[in-house]
Amino acid sequence: MAKKSSSAEKRHRKSEERRLRNKSTKSAVKTSVKKFIVLAHKKDPEAEAALKEMIKKIDTAAGKGIITKNAAARKKSRMQRYFNGIKAAQ
Fold it and tell me: What is the pTM of this model?
């Protein structure tokens, strides 16, 4: 069996670290989206604060390159439209 080069071992180690870090950020974004949807559906006054928190997390993930800028814009736009529709219905 061939011996791995030290650079390949380091590359693998670092990619694993990045994967775990990216996974936690993606999970935080998904959790904040779910929290916002639940609050907005209940017409809770805290939904606006949850929307702002969600947008902040999405922007952070996009800034780090974990999700693309277009995906971030699309998610924010959809959630803002959802919030505005519920707000208008009240």
Answer: 0.85
Assigned token pair, 64: 């780090």
DSSP per residue over 7-51, as a string?
A: HHHHHHHHHHHHHHHHHHHHHHHHHHHHHHHHHHHTT-TTHHHHH
Query: How far is CA 10 from each of CA 17, 18, 68, 78, 84, rounded to the nearest angstrom?
Result: 11, 12, 26, 40, 48
Enumerate residues 6+ apart whose C-beta is below 8 A from 86: 40, 41, 43, 47
Question: What are the tens digits of pLDDT across the range 27-76?
Answer: 999 999 999 999 999 999 999 999 999 999 999 999 999 999 999 999 99
